[in-house]
User: What shape does this take?
Amino acid sequence: MEKFTTLSAIAAALPEANIDTDKIIPARFLKTTQRTGLGRHAFDAMRYREDGSENPDFVLNREPWRKAEILITFDNLGCGSSREHAPWALLDFGIRCVIAPSFADIFFNNCFKNGILPISLPREVCERLMDDASMGENARLTVDLARQVVIRPDGEEVSFDIDPFRKHLLLEGLDDIGQTLQHEQGITRYENREHQEKSWMPSIHID
Amino acid sequence: MAPRTLFDKIWDDHVVETLPDGTSILYIDRHLVHEVTSPQAFEGLRLAGRRLRHPERTIAVVDHNVPTSDRTQPIEEPESRNQIETLERNVKEFGVPYFPLLSANQGIVHVVGPEQGISLPGMTIVCGDSHTSTHGAMGSLAFGIGTSEVEHVMATQTILQKPAKNMRVTVEGVPGHGVSAKDIMLAIIGRIGTAGGTGHVIEFAGSAIRGLDMAGRMTLCNMSIEAGARAGLVAPDETTFEYVRGRPFAPKGEDFDRAVAYWKTLATDEGAHFDKEVTLRAEDISPTLTWGTSPETVLPISGTVPDPAQEPDEARRAQMQRMLDYMGLEAGQAIAGTPVDVVFIGSCTNSRIEDLRAAARVAEGRKVAQGVRAMIVPGSGNVKRQAEEEGLDKVFLDAGFEWREAGCSMCLGMNPDRLTPGQRCASTSNRNFEGRQGPGGRTHLLSPAMAAAAAVTGCLTDVRELV
Assistant: This one.
């Protein structure tokens, strides 16, 4: 997983609430067995017209937001399915940071696992950042994860909260499995205890 | 010890270790795997030279992509075929128990788990699918995870989590005629909204919930995710124990008795703290359906489509208008009487034998309206077989319904079962998002009985007029 330290980039505003995972990546594109290549279908229904051509009104089809690496939306971003294809599609498009007043739980989790930083900020702050984003190339936002601030084009710093463990994993680009396996003895102890206390626990075997 | 909730008890019982920042390593009893969200996880294991820590706590099925027509022919869509073949290679290589496509036990993972006795009370259950919340009906803590977490569970049999908050939704009273678990759940989501449960695990309680059979409880817990909750659950009781008894993978004999003794300790203690409480009266709930493209946009069947002009918030007003345009509805129109093109009875929400019986009661002796395509997609091979033993297939076929093989089907249109642009569908599934059932498709979520009523009248109809 790529580290996330600081990101200075073009931000795109998508001023909608409840942007669901079917909108981010429709189910018919989930047939891949890879993590990459989904970027061209990110926001498919909003991005392309029925004949397959680009919808020129959609923000991510316009310059300079085609190169956006930060996405700002309203509440409950990523609601719906658990598909990790949603952050994969965003990442493959180039998005490294999503900012919204609130997120759906599973999507929020999935972002961290892929080096995307989800930042939760009050709606009025998101609206101000959307104003900045509307200035496109002239207004890059900077996200400094170590200092936990978003720096606006006028230099104003907006601080945000983040779970310290997740911050650490992002800054170092670490995945969870290696971390957890450091606690393997604890897992084995748990299993031994369970074996005694829940001796009824069935195993699944199919011939 | 302070009084604890059902969720607290299951959680406490599965904590392996709590890290200094409050994240817990939580032990996972059951891992359910399907073809769509697992290939990248198996690939990750392979690249790291890892194995599954406990294949015997894991079960794999194919459901999302599978055709629901003739299964003896090769799968036509090459990408779907590839995903299914990839799973078959992976379960072989990693030694994962698997119900193949042609097994009678094949079906939607959230139907198969409880049906086989694989999902049991008091367990922690995960799957790379948000509707894993379904298994909470067993009195287990069950939630959806992403593919990175799928790989994590495969490698470690644990997951990293912080405890959720506790929320209780209490429904008291006796549901009226024609009102099912689906109507109750739609009413709940309408009340609390699609983010109403975010960060919480919802315990469903109250006399109306205790009165539900297991299928109804599964419908309820299934759609907890549509209320934004991490999981939904119902305390295990005699209804649960009777359901579990004798299932193929459930404990047997003395083991069963020992398990029940443990399961009986799980119910929420008197005086346990809930961070959020919501109460509804079952008598206030009518047959309910959605009008928009978010599951919270619900109406009683007697209702009229809301008017965006009445909405004070500008962003919400614009969103409502967009929904009306997408759905092809006018503000103020009565929802009943709206013609439908397709009826879909199936999905992990409503494809169990009880659901099919409810639909058959409406369909019996009637005909699917002209121009309507109506499909029945049983949740598993076993549900299909049982329905055939009861003669339900005949009822449906005589009425002009399609009688199909088990799978996720038109709930999300990953297989060939899809809406075409502009088609309106009365659907027993769980999501009415734009394009969910096919690009441009228009979805109204409702109960199996209401869906059958729409099929035989050709329009959204109050089922109470028919039964």
Summary: Chain B has a mean pLDDT of 97. Chain B is about 30% helix and 15% strand.
